[in-house]
Amino acid sequence: MDTQPVDRKNLLNDLKIDRSAQPAAGGLRPLKWFVLIAVVSGIGFTGWFFDFPMADEGIVINTAVAQAVSSVETGGSVLDATGYVVARRQATVSSKTTGKVLEVLIEEGVVVAKGQLLATLDDSIPRAQLNLAESQLESARAGLDEINVMLKQTQLDLARTQGLAKRNLASQADLDRDGLDVQALIARLAKAGKDIQVAESSVAVRREMLADMQIRAPFAGIVVAKAAQPGEMISPVSAGGDFTRTGICTIVDMESLEVEVDVNESYINRVYPAQPVQVTLNAYPDYHFPAEVIAIIPTADRSKATVRVRVALLERDERVFPDMGVRVAFLEEKSSHAEGTAARTGVLVPYDSVARDDAGQFVFVVAAQQASRRSVTIAERQGARVRIVDGLGNGERVVADLSGERLNELSSGDRVSVVNQAL
Are the C-beta atoms of residues 197 and 69 closer than 8 Å to each other? Predict the structure, then answer.
């Protein structure tokens, strides 16, 4: 009986936790895995948040754009003004007749060629009218064949009557009747010929009306606006309020882009035709486009006291869009072609973008995230830039800095990642 309390005490001692004992080796494995996952996730998030370049993005580089050199040496600005880029050739393409749109084959930004099909209208009625006109033409031709047969018969009858009249076997009345029948058929034959011409003209008109159901581009350009959708009604004139469209799309000929500037009439005496001009887009303030004055519009705006001046861009650039704002500097020409000044050609790039080795001078041209080596010919250095006269075109991008380690680590065909597309 005395052993029962002792047994209970021993059992309670067995339930105590020995805190001096070391944990098993596998006890920390879940904690180690958690720490490892947290570190890896933190590194990945940091790289994503701060936009660090990954290994597969290629060599990180800066680029610069090759800028064209003006063909005429110019002095300082004699007049500054603002204006807009305009397209001299722009059209909202519509149909000649009212019809329902069946299909629209273009979208905004699509380049179209002259005569390219833009949209089709419902041509069921014009096609039926063409079939009717063609049937009428066939009927007129068949009637002409019938008249020819009848004319031959009356001519034979007239010949027989004339023979009988010579032998006094036919009266003069019979002879006159057969002669008039021949003349009547000849007149009908002429009328049938005219009817065939009318039917042929009608067929031509119906074919033209059927062709008008296909709306084509009047000139080559770029679609800047799409105004109609399949199922809508379209008309060359406004009708039916907002339920009838007046055009399919708007096309702009990018080759016809120029700049229009309003010059204060007090300073218009500083502007003259063919004057060199420097155009700067508000969107690209560090890039200057060579230009020249086309014409001074011989009329003034009474309300603004300005005169409109047209300026031609000497080089086509894909960054120039209609209605973009520009700053225009009218320059003072130092020397003209008539005085024998040599035309200046080529492009300007930063001096550090050109490298040299035993093979000659070269740059790395960047296109589609790939750098390719290209040999160039340099004319002279102009401050921080050099003029390249061969091997590089206007608007191409080059690696901006080829000094030091960058030149050693870059090879032709390497994949690159552009972090600063400088102009």
Answer: no
